Amino acid sequence: xxxxxxxxxxxxxxxxxxxxxxxxxxxxxxxxxxxxxxxxxxxxxxxxxxxxxxxxxxxxxxxxxxxxxxxxxxxxxxxxxxxxxxxxxxxxxxxxxxxxxxxxxxxxxxxxxxxxxxxxxxxxxxxxxxxxxxxxxxxxxxxxxxxxxxxxxxxxxxxxxxxxxxxxxxxxxxxxxxxxxxxxxxxxxxxxxxxxxxxxxxxxxxxxxxxxxxxxxxxxxxxxxxxxxxxxxxxxxxxxxxxxxxxxxxxxxxxxx
Length: 257
What we know:
By secondary structure, the protein is an alpha+beta fold. The protein has helices spanning 7-37, 40-45, 113-122, 132-135, and strands spanning 48-56, 62-70, 74-81, 84-90, 96-100, 105-110, 138-147, 150-158, 164-170, 176-185, 188-202, 205-214, 221-231.
């Protein structure tokens, strides 16, 4: 006669089994995602990137943007609208600078502690699922969802600082289709989502050349069209240090982004 397994213990066994299945599914999805991008070895071999394109806030307010990245964790962003240029630089360690003439600040100012924390995340051009454990990030498989009419695998990524973001990958291509999270707009945290389109291959890696963003239930929108992506360009280290102040301008301010 077989001994009965206590109900509580059985539930523990079942929960452990479900956790193992979920973890395995997340690992499998991550593996397929990295392969779809071009392979982990190629991703980690890249030492620098430069992205050039145009950013649109609406039909009347748009302009060129530049993003530069260099290991370890260095970053520079420039956005020009109505002859005013917003600049953000980060040295990859603990110092960052920003110029925002739309706030009446034409001289570079040091980033706040919160801005530095955000810059540390933004400057990771590998993304949070590469070496997730080493970065202190945890990844959970949420399930399937529809993204612009196509099936997608949804992953929940919890960063070591507790922030949670969702990444949805196309079920056929395993390329990133949607990002969902929060961002600060006018001092308030709002839900933000970005859709990724027009993937092209550059130096053996796949990159989206169109990013369309919005905040559901608000008027905030943003679109980026990429003109050029450079892999391993030579970037002078001064680009990631304190920037010079731009020329003054009296043009009106665009919407917050």
